Fold:
Amino acid sequence: MTATQPTAAPGTEAGEQPAVTGPAVSGGRKAQGDVRETLYFALRNPKVLIGLVVVLGFLLLGLLGPLFLRHAPMDYAGPPMAPPSADFPFGTTTFGQDVFAQFVAGLRSTFLVGLLGGGVAAVIGMTIGFVAGYRGGLIDELLNMLTNVVLVIPGFVVLIIINAYLGVRSVPMQALYIGIFTWPWVARAVRSQTLSLRSRDFIDLARLSGVGVGTILRREVAPNMYSYLFMTFVLLFGGSILTAASLDFIGLGPTNAMSLGLMMNQAVQWSALHLGLWWWFIPPGLGITLIVGSLYIMNVGLDEVFNPKLREM
Amino acid sequence: MLTLDNLDKVYRTGTFGTSDLHAVRQVSLDVQRGEVVSLIGESGSGKSTIGKMVLHLLDSSGGTMTFDGRDVTKLGFRARREYYRKVQGVFQDPFSSFNPIYKVDRTFETLRRSYFPRVTGSEWRSRLDDALAAVTLEPDDILGKFPHQLSGGQLQRLLIARALLLDIELLVADEIISMLDASTRIDVLNLLGELKGRGLGILFVTHDLSLGNYVSDRVVILYKGRVVERGETSAVFDDPLHPYTRDLLASVPHLDRTWDEVEAEEAERTQRLAGRCLYHEAITAQGRSLGEEADAADGVPDGVGLVEYAPGHFVGCFRKAAEEKCPAAT
Ligand SMILES: Nc1ncnc2c1ncn2[C@@H]1O[C@H](COP(=O)(O)OP(=O)(O)OP(=O)(O)O)[C@@H](O)[C@H]1O
Ligand SMILES: [Mg+2]
Structure:
């Protein structure tokens, strides 16, 4: 269970965020059939494959699981404190709620929080990074200052305060707040890559073709770092899940939804540990650990795929 | 056609511009139609910076720029788009001029989308073929390839072809032949000659004096961001005045004269000009003193201006770097 109780969520403590060691921009991915080649190496990379299978497995369970459920997550559906059985694969809680139903619902909010939180952080971070890196000058300095300010804010603490006082009670809301505090390292990374791309002559040539800033960023700069942006998103996705789980666990999660962190929170609250109801807290704990762990392993694998120098020949 | 008047460029480096780098100082020059003007200077002298300011890829920090009498010092996005119909550039490094993840065709496609959205596919294709033929490239060898599959010379010529697709009047060519081998070099130089014949003005940036000599009608010698001498190519090359120009030319082999003749001539010139500064002599002859001139130039350090030594042959103060003292002042 300790594995699911991080003292510092990587998503919020930007300083500890594992840096994405993306392929050097100057490496310039080229060659015909680039996409197919990348896919070929990705599907042969055991790290990517394992990570993908685990994450997709949980995703499918979350998406399709509800179709086979007979009880709603909060229904008092069966005998209290029943161990796993054919009727209740993950057993029941002290109140007789179906743990499996809760787990499936929790998976949904976990993926939702990852997608939205990661998405918000990615959009903010990349926009700021692109603009700061491309425009330079005063705009860059101002955006840099903003980035650094948000970077040094102890995000997790602020999230706790926001959650406690503003009463974040829905999953998308929680995801939004998480996203707002996790973008700075993305902005920094994207900015430095954009900076190095900006000085290349093909950017100037595009300007000589009368093309505007937005188009240049979209069509010339970003495509050069797709692999990097993708890896960044994977990390953000995992970070958001972990942060959300931590918030839920300390009782600051959404009230109108079930989540894996909330399950653990309730398990602890109702002394599942002392009562020996292991089926109540092991599934959500293991679920989060496996999903986040797989995402990070996948990221390492993707690094090898995108960076030919790291490929094992 | 293009006139730069006291153009300045200060690079702001360090946070909030705490340390500045004065890369281009009070540069004045002009390029006319049907003329090649060479901008010659050593590495770091600010040649590319001037080229980029002309192309509006960098903002100038002072001075003015006019094109056909119209002020083009500051241009908005739309005005710049129109400007680029007439003024185009080819850069120093062909490998970095193409986005490595796309086929080279895309460079042309970008131009088409931007400026010729109504031209049909077949019409465009024939224009493209013409432009490629002008730079002696076979479309079949080039199109559909990625930049790393082509040679530097081929890429460089592709860039020239790109500029030709627009009906341009001025081409800024930044060291476009330093990457080429000897035979392609001649091809490209001849192409420039032909373009000049068609009435194009060319600002030819180079650090290679013999190339400057070969192609240009007029030369501008740049040293540490300052124009030290400019004039007709023959005038400057036959009678270099500024110490820096003389140093430069001393290292260039002459085909029509023996080494001894050249050395003798240079020794005579050294003797004639030693300890003098033609610029300040001319200023004094006009009845102005050295200190007055600095005031007249609005506090700008004196010696960044030029005087006309002979018709069309301008020379600046004989100091080298702008911070140094004039040799005649001591
Ligand atoms: N973006 C920049 N920021 C700060 N300083 C710059 C920048 N670009 C160029 N410089 C400086 O300005 C000076 C002139 O540079 P520029 O590129 O114009 O030289 P150049 O004459 O083209 O040299 P080369 O022959 O090597 O191409 C150099 O000292 C250079 O270090
Ligand atoms: Mg240069």
About this structure: Residues 296-300 of chain B have pLDDT under 50 and may be disordered. The radius of gyration of chain B is 21 Å. DSSP finds 13 helices and twelve strands in chain B. The first strand of chain B starts at residue 2 and ends at 13.
